[in-house]
Amino acid sequence: MRQRRACDGDGARSDKGQAAPPGHGAIVHDGPEPIGSTIQRMKRLGALVCGVLLAAASVRAHHSFAAEYDASQPITVSGTIARIDWTNPHFHFYLDVKNDAGAVTQWKFEGYPPNMLIRQGWKRDVTLKPGDSVTVSGWRARADPNLGAAREVTFADGHKMTAGPPAGTGGQ
After folding, report:
1. Is the peptide bond before 130 cis (omega within 30 degrees of 0)?
2. Which of 41, 61, 81 is where one domain is finished?
3. Residue 53 shares a structural domain with residue 76
4. 122-127, long-range: CB within 8 Å, 24+ apart, which pairs?
5. Domain contains 108
6. Is the pLDDT reported for residue 30 higher than 70?
């Protein structure tokens, strides 16, 4: 219940029409809280719930290596770069791979965060470009047959660059 002070002795009346005694502030109880303050509390509660849900989604979005990839299934795949995404929390690139029959399958590889790749000498739009022929070594995903965690990229000229976790760790 909301409380409000009535007039302070100047002859004005309270909201209920009662005169306040001179020099005394009367306390007027005027029923339940107005709807506006309830709406404000509901808005605050809604913002809190949204914040908690967003935090939970971001935790789920950044997974552990062992949850997504199988360290006991190393792979080496050769093909042509189709697309590169320099996004956080991980760098991704897509590799078009031809099988013996000539059919193309697209693989998606995940690597280090972009800032870590830059510290290792990678340059956006320079080091790896669509159309480049590369060989990628890493680990296969547990669920998706065409997803892998990249460890190392070998370029057509033979030079190699690290793209993911060190050999032997496999996220264990």
Report:
1. no
2. 61
3. no
4. 122/161, 124/86, 127/161
5. yes
6. no
